[in-house]
Amino acid sequence: MTTYLDFEKPVAELEAKITELEALAANGEGPSISTELKKLRMKSAKQLKDLYTSLSAWRKTQVARHPQRPHFSDYITHLFDDYQELAGDRLYGNDEAVTGGLARFNDRSVIILGHEKGRTTESRLRHNFGMAHPEGYRKAVRLMDMAEKFGLPVLSFVDTAGAYPGKAGEERGQAEAIARSTERCLTLSVPMIATIIGEGGSGGAIALAAANRVLMLEHSIYSVISPEGCASILYRDSSKANEAAEAMKITSEHLLRLKVVDSLIKEPVGGAHRNPEKSIQDVGKAIWTDLKKLSKLSPEKIKQQRRDRFYAIGREGL
């Protein structure tokens, strides 16, 4: 069952009517309504397309946070074979907001890692809503060290509102752990491709996204702070998050022009959650295309390419 966002109310009402008429038709009640159903389906599809043709930054934020949007665990299931999770940072413990391990991608060995938010109440609590503690980022560093040692590409999937902001994280060195993870991304001599699949929030996102190529789903967001956090600081009013979202340039279109991301992956009409399998496969195709190109480069050229892409950020665009 689809969960509708606030701005999708007109579509929700139409689809509820369609469901009602389909139930009547299935039960053989009332006159033939096939023509009416066809018209309503066409109207609903057009309305959905019109809504998603020009989404504001705030509406994109809502789509990026949609509870039914594909999570990292869904990408693992549909894109990779022989996944073997590797747990723990070998220093403190195992953080489940960041998961990863060895896998096969189109019959090629890779290291994958990413944020997992969880879907049920139980799994969200277990994964801490995708907000990693320091040991999550130290686990990521351990996996990247392994990738370097065995010459394996690194594929990361970013979906977090930010690193865990609580006392426990600070006590265990959150800032240092994020900095180390970001540094390790930048110094890898193997290809690294990061994909923003939902929210890309703050240092918690960049710690897994300082890659050779940064891909971004059409309705994802990527920012230094959440719109609500920005509104609280600048406007002293978190209810102005919609204004903050527009000002921050957090959408894929803005970030592509600024060269913060390298590629925009189109989503099905209505967002990735309306056709998860197609969206996941489209992400897989985009990653594979870039991985084949990067795999032709020498270790030194891989490092140079990564340096060049980060130096180019913001030099052109808005």
Which descriptors apply to this entry?
single chain; 2-enoyl-CoA Hydratase, Chain A, domain 1; 8-stranded mixed sheet; 8 strands; 15% strand
Number of helices: 14
Please give the domain count: 2
Secondary-structure-derived class: alpha/beta
The unreliable regions are: none
What string gives the helices and strands in order? Answer: HHHHEEEHHEHHEHEEHHHEHH
Question: CATH class of the largest domain, anyone?
Answer: Alpha Beta
Question: Which CATH architecture of the largest domain?
Answer: Alpha-Beta Complex
> DSSP strand (E) fraction?
15-25%
Mind telling me the CATH superfamily name of the largest domain?
2-enoyl-CoA Hydratase, Chain A, domain 1
Helix content: 40-55%
Write the topology of this structure:
Blueprint: H1 9-26, H2 34-53, H3 57-64, H4 72-79, E1 81-85, E2 98-105, E3 108-115, H5 121-126, H6 134-150, E4 154-160, H7 167-171, H8 174-187, E5 192-201, H9 202-206, E6 213-217, E7 221-223, H10 227-234, H11 241-248, H12 252-257, E8 263-265, H13 276-294, H14 299-311
Parallel strand pairs: 3-4, 4-5, 5-6, 5-7, 6-8
Antiparallel strand pairs: 1-2, 2-3
Helix pairs in contact: 1-2, 3-11, 4-13, 6-8, 10-11
